[in-house]
Design brief:
The complex is a heterodimer of chains A (222) and B (197). By secondary structure, chain A is mainly α. In chain A, 83% of the residues lie in helices and 0% in strands. The model of chain A has no long low-confidence stretch (mean pLDDT 88). Chain B has one domain: Rossmann fold (3-Layer(aba) Sandwich), CATH 3.40.50. In chain B, helix 3 crosses helix 4, helix 3 (82-92) packs parallel to helix 5 (122-135) and helix 4 (99-106) crosses helix 5 (122-135).
Chain lengths: 222, 197
């Protein structure tokens, strides 16, 4: 079972790499869109620092969501979904492996890029660490929750728009606490409570999302 | 039931080890639906499917892990090479990576093993899908028009693979329009079935 889990993970990462950095496009979108803000609102540090954290988080939601609609669609179209369902791995763990591969190529890259983003948005130095930490705890939840919607929308036309309508409302708590953690830290309060709430949401998503996703995948197989 | 429409009713059959059932019937008579029912992807509208007297609906995942379903789509990923595609399928079913070689060999894909699958023709992709049958030994084969796109030599390989599978006590159900010949196979003509009330 561990071998099968690893095989799915390796295959998805390899597919992402071989498609000419297909999977990195959302992250490039994120960095480019962020770079537009200093140009749009002016480079005044106080303005940027005020809106910076919120902008980083909103764009992180969008970047993760952009890459979600292909998470299961490709497998459903070429029959790989049937193949995955015939393996020894339960569909719940298949979903988890695919989410992990998705997060490694989206959320984790955002975490690694966050010092650069903080610099672009003129965030104070003490915000950098907590921003990276909040993204590290928050972005896996984005992938897991979005994965449910992606599985539900297999076969739907114009699924990327529908996906946004379904998923963005669910992302609101993560946005609020993600921004709250960084702002708390900057204002000299601790960002710890918000980080703990983000961690709690991640644990709940880890426990529940694979079951919901597997149920949606079974529907898609019918 | 498919799309709210009853496709067939009053169907009952049992297969013993070594049996091959050939499904016939015009387009839309429910050959593919029956195969997906047998694979446990679709729940039957009424009635039940059993493997060795145990109902499939009780543990569909365990049932799917003992069968090969090869449908119209080949489940082949273009960016991966033929060997990587097959190794992945083997790892998924807990078979060793070395199993891929047997499958590649059986359908004469060794010369194409390191070619990314997107450069393969439709027939070659189909052979790659069928190579899974040989790479991963499983007792039940469900094949939906396996002969489509295959040349005569490779239809022969498929027929030989089917014969060996039967000799080993395997069961196969295939939907075909007659391009794959199987000796003394049972035949079920869904075109003759009365559509239910």
């Amino acid at each position: 079972m561990i071998a099968a889990f690893g095989a799915i993970l390796r295959r998805d990462l390899r597919l992402g790499l071989r498609r000419g950095g297909d999977s990195l496009q959302p992250v490039l979108f994120f960095v480019l869109a962020l770079a537009l803000f200093p140009l749009g609102v002016g480079p005044a540090p106080e303005v940027l620092a005020r809106i910076g954290v919120g902008v980083v988080w909103v764009l992180a939601l969008l970047a993760v969501m952009l890459s979600l609609d292909r998470l299961y669609q490709g497998d459903a179209e070429d029959g790989s979904l049937e193949l995955l369902a015939q393996g020894v791995l339960p569909l719940e763990l298949v979903a988890l492996a695919k989410c992990l591969a998705h997060w490694l190529t989206s959320g984790l890259v955002l975490v690694l890029a966050s010092p650069l983003l903080a610099l672009l948005m003129q965030l104070p130095a003490e915000a950098q660490g907590v921003l990276a930490l909040a993204l590290l705890v928050g972005t896996p939840t984005l992938t897991l929750v979005g994965g449910i919607a992606a599985a539900l929308l297999i076969g739907a036309r114009r699924s990327s728009v529908l996906l946004a309508l379904l998923v963005l409302p669910l992302y609101i708590p993560i946005l609020i606490f993600g921004v709250g953690a960084v702002e708390g830290e900057v204002m000299g309060l601790s960002g710890r409570p918000q980080l703990l709430i983000l961690a709690a949401m991640l644990l709940a998503a880890l426990a529940l999302a694979p079951f919901a996703t597997a149920a949606a995948l079974r529907l898609a197989l019918e | 039931m498919r799309g709210g429409r009853q496709v067939f009713a009053g169907l009952s059959f049992a297969l013993a080890p070594g049996d091959v059932l050939v499904l016939r019937g015009p387009n839309g008579s429910g050959k593919s639906s029956l195969l997906r029912l047998l694979a446990g992807f679709l729940p039957p509208g009424a009635g039940q499917i059993a493997w060795a007297d145990e109902r499939v609906a009780l543990d569909p995942a365990a049932h799917r892990a003992r069968l090969h379903y090869v449908g119209h789509t080949d489940a082949v990923k273009g960016p991966l090479t033929a060997r990587e595609n097959l190794t992945f399928a083997a790892a998924l079913s807990g078979a060793p990576a070395s199993a891929a070689a047997a499958g590649l060999d059986g359908f004469d894909l060794m010369p194409l093993a390191e070619v990314p699958a997107r450069y393969l023709s439709a027939g070659q992709k189909r052979r790659l899908a069928l190579a899974r049958l040989l790479a991963i030994p499983r007792p039940l084969w469900l094949l939906d028009e396996p002969g489509v796109g295959l040349d005569a030599a490779n239809r022969g390989r498929l027929e030989r693979a089917l014969a060996e599978h039967r000799a080993g006590g395997g069961i196969a159900v295939l939907a075909t329009h007659g391009d794959v010949a199987v000796e003394d196979a049972l035949t079920l003509d869904l075109g003759l079935m009365e559509p239910g009330p």
